[in-house]
Amino acid sequence: MTSTRPYLIRAIHEWILDNNLTPYILVNTKVAGLLLPGQYIDGDEITFNISSSATKDLYLGNEEVEFSARFRGTPTFVRVPTKAILAVYAKETGAGMAFQEEPSEQGVEEEDKEAVAAAPRKSPEPDAESSRPALRIVK
Prior knowledge:
20% of the residues lie in helices and 30% in strands. It is an alpha+beta fold and 139 residues long.
């Protein structure tokens, strides 16, 4: 099943813009596949203003968020996998949505196998010959 995160990111982004607020995203910098301005990363997280006045060519896709922005006057292309986005929120109010880390597909399959192995087994059904019929004729 596909992740709901990209759909929620787009919805919250649109809601923030509809209310004339400034959309920000909080990004986990430890996730693979990021293309970020490295000199501005301080710690495990970085925040980006993704409003139309701060970005150019903003793309909110299912797999990644991409845009161009200026950092101290230098145009920079930014690519963030959606799984790296920790929150989408309005700068002015803090209203928005935070996301939990999603389990990997492999982790989900392993959990399913463990659940099946741990499930109690039913005892075999008794033989039909040895048991009496459960139904009786009523006249």
